[in-house]
Amino acid sequence: MANQIRCAHILVAKESDAKAILERINKGESFSKLAEENSIDGSRKHGGDLGFFGRGIMVKQFETAAFALERGQVSGIVKTQFGYHIIKRTE
Hints:
This protein is of the alpha+beta class and 91 residues long. The chain has three helices and four strands.
C-alpha cells in the first residue's frame, strides 16, 4: 500500500452547499458526521470513507486534490462531473 492513500469525502450537487459544509468543517464540526448528513453518494453510510486507493482509480480532479493533501488535511472544494467534493485524507 506504499502508493495508496485513504480518504473520506463529502459529495454534494451544489457549490453553495459545499461552501456551507466547508465552513462548518473549518469551525470544528465532525467531517464524518457532516458526510453522513449531507453526502449524496453511498459513502455517506461510512462517514464518507472511501477506503484506500492508488493513482488511476479516481477521476483526475479528485485524484490530484487527494494526493496533494497531508494526512488529516481537508481540501477546498473540488469540482468533478459528479458534483462538488470536500476531501479529507485520513491515512
